[in-house]
Specification:
Blueprint: H1 2-21, E1 35-41, E2 49-51, E3 54-58, E4 62-69, E5 75-85, E6 91-97, E7 107-109, E8 114-118, E9 121-124, E10 141-145, E11 151-157, E12 164-169, H2 176-179, E13 183-189
Parallel strand pairs: 1-4, 3-13
Antiparallel strand pairs: 1-2, 4-11, 5-6, 5-10, 5-12, 7-11, 8-9, 8-10, 12-13
The structure holds copper (II) ion.
Length: 191
């Protein structure tokens, strides 16, 4: 009798687990040509966000992330994990950088007024900072998408080493964008 109960319970747990997993992680996926548009939005009152704020990428997929700044402010786009905090206690980028290790295979088309920045150095695009990169000198690889930049495209093939959960974030204005909701999930799955 006891054994029967244990077996029944196991069965119920298995069913529950299957129901919860619901066919893989939730999030927006690139279309059949690999394009996935991510809007950077803000509004009066500090409502900052990425739309969508959860994306799912698949290993081996050729992906084109199309960033559009729809807001009034300048916004960054970084992917990584383990947020680092500066001495002032402000979120200041990620300890582990998603793009850094594959920087040689990442192609970016920066829109007018957008920049590709690596460890605070402008690598591509027009330097609109006037040499003053303070505020966007986070560790790692990022796109600085100034307001009105149009589209910036990040193109890459998703590597096997990226499998797992990552975070996207904007750390502008002393990390306040991140704190105000400008962050999201990036999940990399096996095909
Ligand atoms: Cu922002």
């Amino acid at each position: 009798m006891k054994r029967l109960i244990v077996i029944s319970l196991l069965g119920i747990f298995t069913l529950l687990a299957a129901a919860c997993s619901g066919g893989g992680p939730q999030g927006a996926r690139p279309d059949s040509s690999g394009n996935l548009t991510i809007l950077q939005e803000d509004s009066e009152g500090g409502n900052m966000k990425f739309s969508p704020n959860s994306i799912v990428l698949t290993v081996g997929q050729r992906v084109r992330l199309v960033l559009e700044n729809k807001g009034q402010k300048n916004h960054e786009f970084m992917i990584g994990r383990a947020v680092v905090y500066n001495p002032a206690g402000e979120p200041d980028g990620f300890k582990e950088d998603f793009f850094g290790p594959m920087a040689d295979q990442v192609k970016a088309q920066t829109g007018m007024g957008a920049m590709l920045v690596m460890d605070g150095k402008v690598m591509q695009g027009m330097d609109m900072s006037g040499g003053n990169t303070a505020g966007m000198d986070h560790p790692g690889w990022m796109v600085m998408n100034n307001t009105g930049s149009g589209q910036t495209v990040i193109e890459f093939t998703v590597p096997e080493s990226a499998v797992g959960e990552w975070e996207m974030g904007c750390f502008q204005d002393k990390g306040s964008h991140y704190d105000d909701g400008m962050r999201g999930k990036v999940i990399v799955v096996k095909p």
